[in-house]
Design brief:
Oligomer: single chain
Radius of gyration: 20 Å
Number of domains: 2
Number of strands: 6
Strand content: 5-15%
Structural class: alpha+beta
Distance between the termini: 38 Å
Helix content: 40-55%
Length: 388
């Protein structure tokens, strides 16, 4: 998903769930910050690098793809953007390596969604925002895995977008190109994707890179052949699935706010969202590369006041000026702690399932920062920066 959903739509969901304007802004800020909290960002603030929730394009270009490097990549992308649906999924006639990667496939309403929401209940608005980012991405990124893998994430050239022409629905072939500098062309059906790389663990085969930005567009409906499914057809209806994601976010935040007693999977706040359903569905279905302005207009009608844009530098001065013991009490400090907790929870679940793709894991809730720091030391050692 993109800023339009992670920021403005998340604000709207928070308001429907009963949060105040101030809390809603903190929640949506945290949800969007997940896409910006890289090691480059953390190094600038001298923050805990293990709290990284994403990797910038340049960081990925320089990322190692040996065992330690792949584990580091998986810890980030599986924890925050491609939450595994079923870590114990049955796979017939498969090697252990393939089975481990297959079990990292992302999807909505998996057990880790519940654990993510329950974990957020222990934190503040930052933890809520992180959880909403993770939950929303389970819908958009369904069918892809947060680890580099050709045999899982590759797609075939058989790729069709369902569009309307002269009042009729038709399937138009998607034409992919490999140009990060050019915008996707919605009129001509030309989209950018990652370059095909035969290497199983190439960064080009991380997540939905082979499908380009299509999973992140709310308006699109498409058919494709995933490698993990033996190249059998998958149909994605993003407008419908994004609406369910929105309603599930509202329900999850109602639970986190205390308005409902339990969080159960496959449950949606459709009644609470009903007064806004028509407008929300119209935004989701509108063919546009960026829906920020439409979501922002809706957010401001809900708020009755301006909704400020996302500003990456907003909380940095507070964090930088705090002394060492006071940093955890700042907005960013609380975000970093919530990110560490989420990453630890997911990687521990992967490790406990017998899957070592995210490496060995120490429970942050029990051991604190020590476990994360030890893994970071191992990563640095592999780069020749320090000895463990």
């Amino acid at each position: 998903m993109q800023k339009d959903f992670h920021y403005y739509a998340t604000y709207c969901a928070a308001r429907i769930a009963g949060y105040s304007h101030a809390d809603g802004m903190e929640i949506c800020y945290s949800a969007q910050l997940v896409d910006w909290c890289s090691r480059t960002f953390l190094s600038k603030l001298n923050g805990p690098r293990a709290a990284a929730t994403t990797q910038l394009q340049l960081e990925l270009m320089e990322a190692r793809t040996d065992l330690i490097g792949l584990q580091d990549i998986t810890r980030i992308w599986a924890s925050f953007h491609f939450l595994p649906y079923d870590l114990h999924a049955e796979v017939r006639r498969a090697t252990r390596q393939y089975r481990s990667k297959y079990r990292l496939l992302c999807g909505p309403n998996g057990a880790l969604v519940s654990e993510t929401v329950e974990l957020a209940k222990k934190g503040g608005t930052q933890a809520v925002g992180i959880a909403m980012h993770v939950l929303a991405d389970t819908w958009a990124h369904s069918g892809f895995a947060g680890t580099p893998s050709l045999v899982i994430n590759n797609t075939d050239s058989w790729f069709y977008e369902r569009i309307e022409e002269a009042g009729l629905e038709v399937d138009r072939p998607v034409r992919f190109r490999h140009s990060a500098s050019k915008q996707d062309d919605l009129d001509e059906g030309i989209y950018s994707n990652s370059v095909y790389q035969w290497s199983e663990n190439s960064i080009m085969n991380l997540g939905h890179g082979r499908a380009g930005h299509l999973p992140d567009y709310s308006f699109i409906r498409y058919r494709y052949l995933p490698a993990w499914g033996d190249y059998e057809e998958i149909v994605k209806d993003n407008p419908s699935e994004y609406y369910k994601a929105f309603c599930q976010m509202v329900y999850a935040m109602e639970y986190l706010k205390g308005s409902v007693p339990l969080f159960t999977l496959d449950t949606y706040a459709t009644e609470a969202v009903a007064p806004w359903e028509s407008e929300i569905r119209d935004i989701l279905a509108k063919r546009q590369l960026d829906a920020c302005e439409d979501w922002r207009a809706l957010a401001e009608r809900m708020a009755g006041q301006p909704v400020e844009d996302f500003d990456l530098e907003k909380y940095q001065a507070e964090y930088l000026s705090a002394d060492h013991r006071g940093k955890d009490s700042t907005f960013l400090g609380a975000f970093f702690l919530a990110a560490l907790a989420q990453k630890s929870m997911v990687t521990n679940a992967i490790f406990r399932s017998g899957n070592l793709l995210a490496g060995f894991s120490v429970d942050f809730a029990e051991k604190g920062f020590q476990g994360m720091r030890d893994f970071q030391k191992l990563l640095d050692y592999g780069k020749g920066e320090e000895k463990p």
